[in-house]
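Troubleshooting entry. Yesterday's outputs looked truncated, so today I'm pasting the complete records for two proteins to confirm everything comes through intact. If either block looks cut off, that's the bug. Protein one:
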Amino acid sequence: MRSISLPLYYRDQSYQFCPISGALLVADTRFRKSPSLPKKVPPLPEKVRRAIELCDNPFLLTSTRAQSEANHAPICAKNSVLGSKVAMRMDALRRRSFLCARLYARYRSPLFRDCAQSMAFFNSVMPSNILSEACLQKSLFAAKTARNFPSDGVLLVGVFLPTTSMHAWIIERDRHPDPTDSAWIMYRPIFAYY
């Protein structure tokens, strides 16, 4: 997976996401004489730009009514067993190290048709008491196991300003594929995997 940083500036502070540790880096910019911005900022890839536009304007997202029916499509037993193993391994790796989970997700195992089906499977396999805090594992799992993520998906990591609370979610084909996640709308993207 390729990645791109989307630093934010808010009330004399800069916010950046560390792709190695998964930590939010906050710096005070009040005492700097001039902001240290790169001289030439590379343009955003089109699908990342579109995902950020949809995060800024969530009313432009495609309806998720049709996708909820597709999520209940039967999954073969082999994919179900492999998917369960991948989900548990993703959870264990993320608890140990963000970098390990990210590198594990980089080696794709396309088991599901799209991110909506992958996230529905993750929600059914993982214990309900950890689902509220497993947004990163769920998003990395969907990126690893959805067949069309490389062409249609963007995994975003965002921050809830002015706090340091972070959240991860996916935008895929002009829609948010996880009907159980409504918190993403409050977060500003600071990092994208695509």
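Protein two, checking that the full record survives here as well:
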Amino acid sequence: MRSPSIVAPLIALATAAASARGDEACEVTARIAVYGLNTPVDDLLRVAELAGAAPPSPGVIRRAGAREATSCAGAILPWSPRPSAESRSGEPTLDVVPLRLVSYLNTAYPASGNDGLVWQGRGLSGMASGGIHARWGVFSAALAPELAGAQNSSFEIVETGKSGDLRWSNPFYGDQIDLPQRPGDRALGTWGPGQSYVRVDAGNVAAGISTENLWIGPGLRNTLLMTDSGPGFPHAFVGTSRPGDVWIGKVEALAFWGRLERSRYFLDRGSALLTGLVVDYAPRWVPTLTLGAARVFVQSWGDFTLHKLLPVSQGVTQQGNPLDNQLASLFFRWVFPESGLDIHAEWGRDDAEAHLRNYLNEPDHSQAYVLGLEKVWFAGQRWVRLQAELTHLQEKRPLENRRGVPVWYTHPDNLGYTHEGQVLGASIGPGGDEQFLAMDVFGRSGRVGGFVERIRRNDAYYWAVDEPTEPHYPAHDVELILGARGAWLVGGVEIGWQLARSMRTNRDFLRHNEPSLQAELDVTFPATASPGQVDQSR
């Protein structure tokens, strides 16, 4: 057993006297409270890094709970986010997690996205969250539960030939993934502990227990291993509180152990053990470049052994433990504040090879990747932001190939990569790919912009089943979306919105072309201080 190889780097990082990366490039003057992932404030601070208004951060290990970010001296953001209430002197602090109300509308068929606990069915759906968080010295905690509901109106589904709850199970990958096409035929109501946690930050070591959503990887819309596509899962963790200085650069790490639950629409209702390790490194000579690697394992919950708790210590072949579901990725993010540019990429594989030579012979066997960029320009007192990202989860392979057609997130033996019926990774799901392009303008009262998106779903099923059996109807399941989005700041209340028109061709291979209206309204209060003004000194 090689557990010391996992623990030693964390101990080394714990003793490093580290400071937040980028503090050398700017003097930090404001400490900002951040809640959630991909919220308007979270989005604003990522753009601020490109504009030179915030110190560059790795941005590849993120959590959705209450946390703190910083901005640079002399840099004024388009609007002023809520300041952090945490005391620098170690005095106890208690603050409110802002009340957040999110609602969605889909007029024709379900939609999916980075929406956490919510299942966006046809009709109305939504979520409410809020709570409190506190800090006392090295200890901090938050109680931030979530409540979600969905109208879950009827739409045509694929018949599975099963009865009862299993009628709603996934029709394309059988018992290899708990990803129901519809969670029953009634309105839904559910709740969870949400972005709650208890943690200790001593020196540069953080440890605790949490139900927060995690985001692992550099992507804007998708990452391969961990997003907020579904609810957070209960987990214990240990890692760095911030990037640690190891002389040749800065390193941060996170190891976690969690429990995944299955929905009532899956044949096997047992739980699964999820373990993972992610490490990133910023070279001393290129401090705005982040290189990283992550590896996660889904294993049977029963029969605990130390080997099961430290699977990342085993080799990169299936010989160590063939009865698990392994996913791994390599990634980078490179920020160029002087030109307002961020480029990022992630490459991963689903399941280990039986022999090392297979990695050389066929490195693309089960590959997936994310490629993207973000660019900011200045237009008077406004920031103009361009986003572009491509996500590819499915490789086309000859049906006769002896190694089969790998499908990301699926696995037999109750080891699919989901929690409570929602995927943990990219929201486009197994066999999906996506292209996304957007432009936004940031000003004193918020931001406004538009986007175009193309999503192709369940492509593994298409190549293996649909095209061979339906040669006269060779249509992929493809959704085209054109939309507008924005965020307004009104009296300290943050109002995010999105309105889009979509057309889905051959949805679920049912031979229909269906248009749909998709809308989102996200209200958070109190969320901000007074509106700010863009610094034009650059």
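Both blocks look complete. Sanity check on protein two: Residues 1-23, 529-538 have pLDDT under 50 and may be disordered.
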